[in-house]
């Protein structure tokens, strides 16, 4: 029980751990340079088993167009791709999908691994599903008001040819 409580607290504090660790939030410039992503997410608060944590949700983000602020997301939880709006802010890059009266927001928090040429290869990420549609006007405000997450994990560059050139150290 104590282990599960510690895991839950750690995942809830994940958005603040980026700032506390001195890591810079993800930027739209980084995201557009990275291109397509594949995300491996776990339900927040789920007890981790020995070995690698089980993936509860996979996302593929493609068709990134920084100019129009749009991208497309394909999820392991639904059929087909869906359009999302892309917003950059102080807390990271927010991918916002409207689902009826709610929104599902995938936030790229910060770069965890960079290639030598500077391209981000892995982002820390969280997903929050809520009813605060003001996220389209003030994504950072909505993120701060609703810090709890539904899922936490990482998003990695889909085209990994730069991985051979990556530093073996986390991004500064």
What does this protein structure show overall?
With 172 residues, this protein is of the alpha+beta class. It has a single domain, classed as Porin (Beta Barrel). The chain has 4 helices and 8 strands, in the order αααβββββββαβ. An 8-stranded antiparallel barrel has the order 1-2-3-4-5-6-7-8. Strand 5 and strand 6 (102-114) form a beta hairpin.
Major sheet description: 8 strands, antiparallel, barrel
The CATH architecture designation is Beta Barrel
Strand order of the largest sheet: 1-2-3-4-5-6-7-8
> What percentage of residues falls in helices of 4 or more residues?
10-25%
Instruction: Output the number of helix runs.
Output: 4
Strand content: 35-45%
Radius of gyration (CA) equals: 15 Å
Shape: globular
CATH top-level class: Mainly Beta
How many β-strand stretches? 8
Determine the mean pLDDT.
Answer: 78
The stretches of 5 or more residues where confidence is low (pLDDT under 50) are 1-22, 161-169
Classify the secondary structure makeup into a structural class.
Answer: alpha+beta
Query: Span from first to last CA?
Result: 35 Å
The arrangement of helices and strands along the chain is HHHEEEEEEEHE
Jot down its keywords:
Porin, 19% helix
Short summary:
Helix content is about 20%, strand content about 40%. With about 170 residues, it is α+β, with helices and mostly antiparallel strands.
């Amino acid at each position: 029980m104590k282990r599960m409580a510690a895991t839950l607290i750690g995942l809830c504090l994940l958005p603040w751990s980026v700032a506390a660790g001195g890591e810079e939030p993800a930027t739209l410039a980084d995201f557009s340079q990275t291109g397509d992503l594949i995300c491996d997410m776990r339900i927040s608060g789920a007890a981790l088993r020995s070995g690698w944590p089980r993936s509860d949700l996979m996302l593929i983000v493609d068709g990134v167009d920084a100019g129009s602020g749009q991208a497309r997301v394909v999820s392991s939880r639904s059929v087909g791709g869906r359009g999302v709006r892309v917003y950059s802010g102080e807390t990271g890059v927010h991918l916002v999908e409207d689902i009826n009266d709610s929104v599902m927001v995938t936030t790229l928090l910060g770069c965890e691994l960079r290639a030598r040429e500077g391209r981000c290869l892995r982002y820390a990420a969280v997903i929050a599903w809520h009813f605060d549609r003001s996220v389209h006007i003030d994504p950072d405000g909505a993120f701060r008001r609703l810090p709890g997450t539904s899922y936490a994990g990482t998003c990695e560059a889909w085209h990994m040819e730069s991985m051979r050139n990556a530093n073996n150290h986390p991004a500064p």
